[in-house]
Amino acid sequence: MQEQPSPITEQRLVAAQDALGKLKTEIEKRLFGQSALVVQAIIGLLARGNILIEGQPGLGKTLPVHVMSEALDLQFSRIQFTPDLMPADITGSQTLVHDEKGAARLEFRAGPVFANIVLADEINRATPKTQSALLEAMQEQAVTVGGARRELPAPFIVAATQNPIEMEGTYPLPEAQLDRFLLKLEVPFPSFETLRDIGLHTTGTTEPTTERVMDRQTLIDLQSLVRDITVAPHVAEYAAKMVMATHPDSPDAPESIRKYVRYGASPRAMQSLILAGRAYALLCGRAWVGEDDLRQVAHPVLRHRMIPSFDAKLENITNNDLVDNLLSTVSEVRATG
C-alpha cells in the first residue's frame, strides 16, 4: 500500500518559508550574483542529496558550501583531493594504541567524512580507488572500515567540486558515481556589475562574516517536510516522460537526443526530479509540486546523467543544450496530448 504524505498545515508552511528565506538571505550576503546557485544548493540540502559544483578556477565553487555550513549549526569538513590521497584518509582507519598498562588494542579514528557537510574539493584529482571511498558514504550514509559498518552523522551531504578545463592529471568521475549526485551545479562567470561589486566589497579591511540562522533540528524537520509535499499523478507522469525522453531508443525522444546521446538517465533521475521538485515547491511556499517546478530543476538534475555521443563533442553540443531541447519537446507533447 502506497504511503500517503502527512497533511501540511499553513502554519508549518509559513514557518518553513520564513526559515528558508533567512537562510537564503544570509548565504547571498557573501555570494554576489549567484542567487540561482544558492537556490539550487539549498534544494540539494533540503532533499538530502549530494551536489557536484563545476566551474573554472576562481569563480567561487567552494565558497557557497563554506557559507552554507556557517549559516547552519552543522559539523563541516573539507577534503582536498590529490593524486596521493588514500581511501583511509577519507574514511578513517584502525590504529594500534596502548593503554596505561601497555596493552595494545585497535582503536578507530574517524576520518573527515564523519561530518554533516563534507566538501570534496577537486574530487576528480584523486584516483578512482579513492573516489570510490565516497560511494558508500554518498549512497548509504555509512562507511565500512575494518569489517565494521559505521553510520555517518545525520544530516549528511557531500558537496564536491571539479574544474572542467584542467584535464591533465585528473581522473574523470565514472558514470556510477556521477549518478549519485542529486544535482550538478554550474558556476558561471560573473556579469560586469557583479565583478565590480566583488572588487568593492571583498578587498577592504572588514572581514565578511556569516550569522548562524538555522539549527540542526530545524533542518532535519524541513528535510522531512519536503517528503510530505504532494505530487499529483500527472506531475509524476510528466517527470517520467522527461526521463524516458533522455534515452535515444525511446519513441518520445527528440531528434537531438537520438543523434547526440549514447545513454540516457537512470531511474535515479526520476527520484531526483521528484525530490528536487518537492524542495523547490517548498522554497516557493507551496505544499504541492507543479510541472513548472520540475522544469526549474531539470537542468541540474539531468545535465550530468546523459552520456553524449562523439557527434555531440564534435559539433560542440552541450548537455545543457540537450536539456533545453528535451524540455521544449516534452512540453509540446504534453500540451497536445
| Secondary-structure element order, N to C | HHEHEHEEEHHEEEHEHHEHHEHEHEHH
- Stated plainly, the CATH topology of the largest domain is called Rossmann fold
- What general outline do the C-alpha atoms trace? globular
What is the oligomer described by this structure?
A: single chain
How many runs of DSSP E, i.e. beta strands? Answer: 13
Radius of gyration over all CA atoms, rounded: 21 Å
Summarize this structure as a short list of keywords or feature phrases.
single chain; 337 residues; alpha/beta; Rossmann fold; Helicase, Ruva Protein, domain 3; 2 domains; two-stranded antiparallel sheet; 15 helices; 45% helix; globular
What is the secondary structure topology, with strand pairs?
Elements: H1 10-28, H2 35-46, E1 50-54, H3 63-71, E2 76-80, H4 87-91, E3 92-98, E4 104-110, E5 117-121, H5 128-131, H6 133-140, E6 142-145, E7 148-151, E8 157-162, H7 175-178, E9 181-186, H8 192-201, H9 216-226, E10 230-231, H10 233-244, H11 255-260, E11 261-263, H12 267-283, E12 288-289, H13 291-302, E13 307-308, H14 310-314, H15 319-336
Parallel strand pairs: 1-8, 1-9, 2-5, 5-8, 10-12
Antiparallel strand pairs: 3-4, 6-7, 11-13
Helix pairs in contact: 1-2, 2-12, 10-12, 12-13, 13-15
How would you describe this protein?
- Strand 3 and strand 4 form a beta hairpin.
- With 337 residues, the protein is an alpha/beta fold.
- The protein has a five-stranded parallel beta sheet with strand order 2-5-8-1-9.
- The protein has two domains: 191 residues, P-loop containing nucleotide triphosphate hydrolases (Rossmann fold); 109 residues, Magnesium chelatase subunit I, C-Terminal domain (Helicase, Ruva Protein, domain 3), CATH 1.10.8.
- The two termini are 30 Å apart.
